[in-house]
């Protein structure tokens, strides 16, 4: 095989350095009481160019987050002092950074619980390192894109909901609502197409940027979390409606006066 021309060789080296520098800008916090798993993840993540911080308990993770800027968390569930679910709830009080939950529990109910507590993704042990790294990249890509939208972004208004896609901010009755990156993408996608019904598979592929397979529970849990943040009565939603047997839609609403929609 003929060698690359000098200019192409230099370009490939430049692209490689650029990708590495881009990854090094991201810090990943790995929280697990199994030191072998933490050390293995540290190796994989550093090979991808990420900076890695390590914690053995939920309390240690919270302490690190108060001192260090972190762009993604990999959190085990079963840990001493403070488990992963309790730590995730505490983190979600102040931060919306991507969080991947890691657990030996593989039942759907366990996955739903993790997502409901605020995780963006759920990976079961033993895990495939390549798959986990792909999920890390996907979550970071989704998260960082929220800060790089074009200046021509829209202000989407639907009844009591106002979504500023330039500032990546959702307001309900004028009050800002904290959303995770995943929740934001779901809301933005549905608000851009009010009244249109999307299957769970279509929503998953648009938001997670992965091929959908048995994703109904994953999407449903995120929809439920969004409803708890935007609906007056989450059990009788006026915005995020389910269309049984098909999927979900953002109901069209018009503001009549403050606090009243139709």
How would you portray this structure in words?
- There is one protein chain.
- The chain is of the alpha/beta class and 262 residues long.
- The chain has 2 domains: 21-145, Response regulator (Rossmann fold), CATH 3.40.50; 155-261, Winged helix-like DNA-binding domain superfamily/Winged helix DNA-binding domain (Arc Repressor Mutant, subunit A, Orthogonal Bundle), CATH 1.10.10.10.
- The chain has 9 helices and 14 strands.
- The strands form 4 sheets. It has a 5-stranded parallel beta sheet with strand order 2-1-3-4-5, with helices on both faces.
- The relative contact order is 0.09.
- The model is unreliable at 1-24 and 256-261 (pLDDT under 50).
- One of its GO terms (cellular component) is protein-DNA complex.
- This is Stage 0 sporulation protein A homolog.
- Pfam families: Response_reg, Trans_reg_C.
- Residues 153-252 form the OmpR/PhoB-type domain.
- Low-pLDDT runs of 5+ residues are 1-24, 256-261
Average pLDDT: 84
The secondary-structure class comes to: alpha/beta
Q: What is the number of strand segments? A: 14
How would you name the CATH homologous superfamily of the largest domain? Response regulator
Main β-sheet, spatial strand arrangement: 2-1-3-4-5
Percent of residues in helices comes to 40-55%
GO molecular function, one term: transcription cis-regulatory region binding
DNA-binding region: 153-252
Biased composition (Low complexity): 11-23
InterPro entries: CheY-like_superfamily, OmpR/PhoB-type_DNA-bd, Sig_transdc_resp-reg_C-effctor, Sig_transdc_resp-reg_receiver, WalR-like, WH-like_DNA-bd_sf
């Amino acid at each position: 095989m003929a060698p690359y021309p000098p200019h192409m060789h230099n370009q490939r080296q430049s692209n490689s350095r650029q990708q590495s520098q881009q990854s090094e800008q991201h810090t990943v916090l790995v929280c697990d009481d199994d030191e072998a798993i933490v050390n293995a993840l540290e190796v994989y993540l550093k090979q991808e160019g990420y900076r890695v911080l390590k914690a053995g308990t939920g309390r240690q993770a919270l302490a690190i987050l108060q001192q260090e800027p972190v762009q993604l968390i990999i959190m085990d569930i079963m840990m001493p002092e403070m488990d992963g679910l309790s730590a995730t709830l505490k983190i979600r009080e102040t931060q919306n950074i991507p969080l991947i939950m890691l657990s030996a529990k593989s039942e759907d109910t366990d996955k739903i619980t993790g997502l409901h507590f605020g995780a963006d993704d759920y990976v079961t042990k033993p895990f495939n390192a390549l798959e986990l790294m792909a999920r890390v990249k996907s979550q970071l890509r989704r998260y960082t894109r929220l800060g790089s939208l074009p200046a021509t972004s829209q202000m989407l208004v639907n009844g009591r909901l106002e979504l500023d896609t330039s500032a990546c901010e959702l307001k309900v009755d004028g009050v800002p609502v904290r959303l995770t990156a995943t929740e934001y993408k779901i809301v933005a996608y549905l608000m851009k197409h009010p009244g249109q019904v999307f299957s769970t598979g279509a929503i998953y592929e648009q938001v997670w940027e992965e091929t959908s397979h048995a994703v109904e529970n994953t999407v449903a849990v995120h929809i439920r979390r969004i409803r708890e943040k935007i609906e007056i009565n989450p059990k009788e939603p006026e915005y995020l409606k389910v269309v049984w047997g098909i999927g979900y839609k953002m109901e069209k609403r018009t503001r009549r006066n403050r606090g009243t929609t139709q």
